[in-house]
Write a structure and sequence with these properties.
mainly alpha; two-stranded antiparallel ribbon; 134 residues
């Protein structure tokens, strides 16, 4: 089985205290005071720095939110580029008389990509956070 078999004398020796109870000194007020002082010092030092845990968690959450927003913006931009490239290929092929290559249909644009398309087609030249140069 999973439990080791121990002989009785080994088990008894394991639980036997090294120092008999009669030779241990009784707890004194000095022992208590020393332990309380150590505890108070350690607890106070810890409490002075516990705010760092909250700051670290908040910074982590902010970094993750920024990462998600950047990833979403990049994905929307990639989709807009793919859509534009498909449109360009269709126009070039229509003018050259060649059939459009068999490629999979571009994925539908996300709202962020539609904003870029709307700005580009409406003729606006400024975009929040920068300028759009046609």
């Amino acid at each position: 089985m999973w439990k080791k078999e121990m002989n009785v004398s080994t088990e008894q020796a394991m639980w036997k205290k090294d120092i008999p109870a009669s030779t241990q000194p009784p707890p004194s007020m000095a022992t208590y005071t020393d332990a309380m002082n150590k505890f108070t010092k350690a607890a106070t030092t810890f409490m002075e720095h516990v705010h760092l845990l909250t700051e670290a968690r908040d910074a982590y959450q902010a970094a993750m939110a920024a990462s998600t927003a950047i990833r979403n913006n990049l994905e929307a931009g990639d989709q807009a580029l793919r859509s534009l490239m498909t449109q360009m290929e269709q126009v070039v092929n229509a003018h050259l008389g060649e059939p459009a290559p068999d490629k999979k249909k571009p994925e539908p644009l996300k709202p962020d990509a539609l904003k870029v398309e709307a700005i580009r087609t409406s003729g606006e030249t400024s975009v929040t956070g920068g300028k759009f140069v046609p």
